[in-house]
Every structure is written in C-alpha cells, then in structure tokens.
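Task: sequence design from structure.
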C-alpha cells in the first residue's frame, strides 16, 4: 500500500500493524529506560509491579507503583497509586498515565487506557522521534499521580457518605442490566436467560466476600 509501512516482530515476523511514513518505532526497551529516568524523580517509593504484552505483542506495558497504598472511606482494602507506561506497535501512541488499575491482561489494559487518556496529567508521545528526549516533560505525570490520589479519596469519601439500601441496589441492577420484558416488550427466552445470568453474576459479587465490610 503506497505510503504505508508495517511493523513486524523481529523474532516471528508476525505483522503488528500498519503505520505512516513519519512513524518512528519505540522499542520495548524504551519502557525500561523511561521508567529509570522517572525513578530519579521519585526513587524512594517507585517500583515496577507488572509488565507484559497483549495482542501478540502489539500492545506492551510497564506498571509502576509510585506511592504508598491508601484506603478509601468505607473500604478496608488498600488501593495502590500506579503510573502506567503503555506503548503500541500498530500505530498507537506511547502513554504515561496515572491509574488505579493493576494491569495484568487485555481487559484491564483497555480499562486503564480509557480512564487515563483524557486526564490532564497523562503524557502522550506520538511515534515521530525519541521518547527519551521528552522525559522531563513527562515528569509532571508522575507528580500528577499524587494529585489524582487526593481527588479520588475526596470522591470516595463523598460516595461513602451516601447510604445505599437494598431497594436502591435492586433499582440499580434493573437499570444497569435492563430486562425489556419488564417494560412489556417481547423478548426471546434466550435473551431472558442471558439477563438473568448476568444479574446473578452481579448479585454473587455484591453479596460475596469481596464486598464484606463495605457493602
């Protein structure tokens, strides 16, 4: 395809995705180099928690814990402030973003990506030059993790002060997983079974040990 190149793995030759003529590859090693540069800003607390790849190596990440865990109001389990370094080899950008998601798989990678892309503290680098040239610019992202943490704690404190009765929970389930038949619409038995199964999963989570102490 004229004006298009393809990124491929150098071990298997598998094609990861098409890129434009101005694209400059940022290798997986750049995540480690970038992390080391950020350690200088926060060396006493920062450590690597997870790292890996999904989609056959098309998306890679390195997750850094950059502060001590904290506890939300009404929740007795710790929440960890992370900085996610995320890189794509199919035309997507390099990101450094604050997150509370512990990335270990494709779904959580995507959740962290969607939650962090539009944060003002997220650093985005297009593959058009050396990412290391802009590491100083990205240091505000590291400092932004603590700002995000304080904002999240304030939000959680506000939410924890709102009582949720059993009736409110059932109303939420009905809105979150609506059943058209409850509105008088015609639906197949299979659809009804799927809705019932999904509600059952949510109910087991809500009434299970995960929510003990903070239901």
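Answer:
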């Amino acid at each position: 395809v004229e004006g298009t190149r393809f990124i491929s793995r150098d071990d298997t030759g598998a094609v990861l995705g098409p890129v434009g003529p101005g694209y400059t590859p940022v290798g997986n090693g750049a995540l480690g180099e970038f992390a080391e540069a950020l350690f200088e800003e926060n060396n006493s607390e920062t450590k690597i928690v997870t790292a890996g790849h999904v989609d056959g190596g098309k998306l890679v990440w390195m997750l850094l814990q950059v502060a001590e865990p904290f506890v939300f109001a009404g929740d007795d389990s710790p929440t960890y402030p992370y900085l996610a370094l995320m890189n794509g080899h199919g035309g997507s950008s390099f990101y450094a973003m604050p997150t509370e998601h512990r990335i270990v798989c494709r779904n959580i990678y995507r959740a962290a990506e969607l939650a962090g892309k539009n944060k003002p503290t997220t650093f985005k680098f297009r593959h058009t030059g050396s990412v290391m040239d802009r590491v100083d610019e990205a240091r505000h992202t590291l400092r932004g993790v603590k700002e995000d943490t304080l904002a999240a704690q304030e939000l959680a404190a506000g939410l924890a002060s709102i009582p949720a009765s059993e009736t409110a929970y059932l109303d939420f389930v009905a809105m979150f997983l609506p059943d058209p038949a409850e509105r008088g619409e015609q639906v197949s038995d299979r659809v009804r079974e799927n809705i019932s199964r999904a509600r059952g999963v949510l109910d087991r989570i809500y009434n299970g040990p995960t929510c003990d102490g903070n239901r």
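The chain has a mean pLDDT of 84.
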